[in-house]
Amino acid sequence: MNSLHEIAARLSSLDADALPVDAVHEVIQASIEPVGETQTVALAEALGRVLAEDLVSPIDVPAHDNSAMDGYAFAGAQCGAYPLRLQVIGAALAGHPYPNPVPLGACVRIMTGAVLPEGCDTVVPIERCTQDGEQLVVPETARVRAGDHRRRAGEDLRRGQTALAAGRCLTPADLGLSASLGIASVVVRRRVRVAYFSTGDELRAPGSTLGAGQIYDSNGAGVRGMLERLGIEVLDLGIVPDVPERLEAAFMHACAHADAVITSGGVGMGDADHTRALLARLGEVCAWSLALRPGRPMAFGRLRAQRGASTQRDCYLFGLPGNPVAAMVSFYALVRPALQRLQGMQAAPMPRLRVRNADLLRKRPGRTEYQRGVVYTDAQGQTAVRSTGPQGSGVLRSMCEANCLIVLEHERGDVAPGDWVDVLMFEGLI
User: In sequence order, what are the residues at sequence separation of 6 or more whose Cβ sits closer than 8 angstroms to the Cβ of residue 102?
Assistant: First the structure.
């Protein structure tokens, strides 16, 4: 495993007080090793889990040539001699195939999904023809050609073909596909465990009584929610005061029981001398100042805990800013993709929506900004985005009013009304 400081050395040529978000993202990604443990789970328990190995189809899908329409099946070699008159000799239903070969001059009534009988390779939709007693009449206007409306065996998947690749976070559609292959269980990576605590002598848990100068801890609830959205097991360590012994105990407990630990507050940047010394002694940690608004301070590293006489366990550390919005934006920009890699998920950029901007957005070049916005449909029926207003990093209410983040790139300046911008929708993100 490469040293974090060796990996982070690539940042040495950049402004230490304003590191580009993309560069820090690359360093973090290069430092993360996915969890290796796997487990087999029933399909009913697999939603949101990450596949640990390719899911290979054990069968052809479909298993047989079948009809894509309700209609009549016959040999396509007879197409062209219109009107085509065929003798209806039976029916093929889904789950109840017609058992005999169908000769030239004959056809069978067939339902969608039913197996095409021997001798049939073409289906005429029921609405394009007429049945007169036991005789089918296919007019020239039916425009039917040989092979029409036939789904071939193996058209969707061939036996032995990869149906779902390892690293995929399983969706409802994936579960449906797996079930269609007769697969009842899948091999997935175990869930990642993340410990979390807030730091600060001024913080109190919601529901308690506030004293002078004290505030409620909002980051704990927000971070927990974002972690649970990722399908992560959360170890909530609550609020830890700025006392070296208490901080060390919290870090060691997290390291012994979790794959990563997330903190918010002063610990993130190691503001106090004792904190920097503590983190240096417990592992390898980098503290950065990012060109990111909101969310300038950030820490990342590895901690190591002793387990027994000879066993050691590594734990990744993510130090977030204390301001609530800054903590959430930093989580989205850097921690979320890192945890996805830790889960063994396939790397995939977040989908962006490009829309017209409705407001004047003030922006200074040289930093990436994530401004809170609302995507809506304007009077012309076009998709647009407007700002939620004040963008202070402590204004958590604006995150509740927003449904997206407006992404303003590193070198971009002010954005005028009517300019194109990229947005990241909140749904499924936080």
Answer: 73, 74, 75, 89, 108, 117, 118, 119, 120
**Which helix H or strand E contains 72, and what residues bound it?**
strand 71-74
Tokens of 6: 């060796």
Question: Which residues face 376 on adjacent strands?
Answer: 384
Q: Over the Cα atoms of the chain, what is R_g?
A: 30
Q: Residue 335: which domain range?
A: 4-37+190-342
Packing angle, helices 273-282 and 244-257, rounded to 10: 30
Residue 344 has pLDDT above 70, yes or no: yes
Reference 236, options 218, 224, 252; nearest CA is 224
| Domain stops at, among 90, 125, 151 | 151
- Contact in structure between 235 and 194 (CB atoms under 8 Å): yes
In a domain, 348, yes or no: no
In a domain, 347, yes or no: no
279-300 pLDDT tens trace: 888 888 888 899 999 988 889 9
Residue where a domain terminates, one of 284, 316, 342: 342
Q: Tens digits of per-residue pLDDT, 114-155? A: 999 999 999 999 999 999 889 999 998 998 999 999 999 999
